[in-house]
Amino acid sequence: MIDIHSHILPEVDDGAQTIEESIEIAEAALAEGIDSIVATPHHLNGEHTNHKEDIIKRVKKLNQAFKRRDIHVKVIPGQQTRIYGEMGEDLLNNEMLTINDNKKYVLLDLPKDHVPHYTTNLIFSMQLEGYRPIIAHPERHPEIQQNPQLLYTLVKNGAYTQVTAASLCGKYGRAVKKLSMQLIEANLVHVIASDVHEVTKKGLYMKQAFTTIEKHFGQAVTYALMDNAHYIIEGEELYSEPPEHPKRKKVFSIL
Rounded to whole angstroms, how far apart are CA atoms 195 and 41? Predict the structure, then answer.
């Protein structure tokens, strides 16, 4: 199994702070059947800046440390970048790190409290240039929670999405779990990932999440979501069904 979103790289953001914590994450990943994990440190989110070349060097160093300790997890370079207006230009100038540096898949981070007005146009222009933006954990974003139709528009314009495994397991509450399921039902989810920052007693939630998906949606959907993680690493096209409008079920309410 492959995990395309993690904060396993030590001392770069709010994830692992030491090599020992990175090892804990790797061992927890192995316990869930994960043998490849993408390091996606935060970039340009107002708190952390992690440039492409620095990430690649740190990933190489972490892989060497794992090899010395006989830990059979491959760490792959990536970046979780806060969306900004000039992102498309910086991609073309090779200043951003795509997943596995394959010049295709870009993990995007939306601002915590809103979806910028230029997001749809930026995503559309990025995919015209051959890039495939992946929106990280949309089910946890307040504006999308209030208006899931917004996510439909983004996907329709070329975005893929990554839902957090823990969301499907109820870690962020029943409403987030319910929305996650609704998004899968509407073909608005393309890959599941851990977004692990630290190891908990319940691990990375990946096995539990896929068990939940298989129970509700069957093996075909489950395997498609698993396979898409592999396709992302290889820079291949993802399996996806045409997006549908989310069903109008009241999940979140404004107090």
Answer: 10
